[in-house]
Amino acid sequence: MKPLAASAVFLAVPAAAVADVPNVVTDIAPVHSLVSMVMDGVGTPDLLIPAAVSPHGYAFRPSDARALQQADILVWVGPDLTPWLADSLASIGPDAHSLALSGMPDTILLPIRDGEVLDLSMGEDHGDHGHDEEHEDHGHDEDHGHDEHAKDEHAHDDHAEDAHGHDDHGHDEDGHDDHGHDEHAEKDAMHDDHGHDDHGHAHGGSTDPHTWLSPANALVWLDHITDELSEIDPENAATYRENAASAGARIEALKGEIASRLGDSASRGYAVYHDAFQYFETSFGLQAGQALSETDGAQPSAARAAAFRDGIESGAITCVFAEPQFADAALRSVAGDASIAVLDPIGSAFEPGPELYPAMLLAIADGIADC
């Protein structure tokens, strides 16, 4: 952590008031929200990428480099979402931590979906990849999978270790509440063999990077965030753990609220600009939406545009959703007279902070339910 500028400060105010809070930098608004939940009452993390901007093609700025240089820890989704950020890890200080959430043990990972027309069977087929017995062994008990597998795949991803020599921090296992995690069935349905060591870039990797749209992943990540912050700032470890427990209980309740709001929406035929919602769909048993663009939001192919148009004309697509992070000209050109609503995977309509993550997921549920 960064030293205070002058020792005189210690004479002017009580010691508690000058506690050195970790300088935490996050990549996207949903991750910022989860970290804000854990840091509540201690400090506020910084946000690199505005929620109205797509992380896929974000232009790294000099101010971002300065933020990384001053960071004690970078908490980010991982290189599948932001390969440019992986390339910028050299900007962070030599003692800074890098926590790539999608590489954490027990994180649900799904492969990028192929083809112009997406259907529910693709989501259902992911469960049978030999992870049943093995995955159950990771169980969400008090140690949250901090076993040999977890030690092998600790928070410090390959990029951070190569650049900064960070070794495994050997987090102890005390204080891990289980948040009532009961999503083994969901994990069995969602986990695949694209594994924790797949650090391919969004344009060449095989893993769908939109991992934050699974509430089960958010629950897992709260513990990893807490572990890292507690190691950097042990004086506030008890607060971090209490906050994580409260946040976990809130997300568990949120899952039930979302399911209630979705009601009988499982078979609704909807379409989005890019294939960002697979984790949300699989979490709540929804039919896969049709996407005009692939997971990285690249310019749509002619084949995708044709399939998209056919879906609207046939009535298979009943709702079309734009996303605030992308211009909607291409979407409108193929949607014809279909009305276009908004479905936002990052939460640009909400103020960054602890309330954003729940509000974002509820807004997605409401959008699909209103379809």
From TrEMBL:
Coiled coil: none
Signal peptide positions on this chain: 1-19
Composition skew (Basic and acidic residues), residue ranges: 123-201
Any one Gene Ontology BP term: zinc ion transport
One family name in Pfam for this protein: ZnuA
Keywords tagged on the record: Ion transport, Signal, Transport, Zinc, Zinc transport
Molecular functions (GO terms): metal ion binding
Official protein name in the record: High-affinity zinc uptake system protein ZnuA
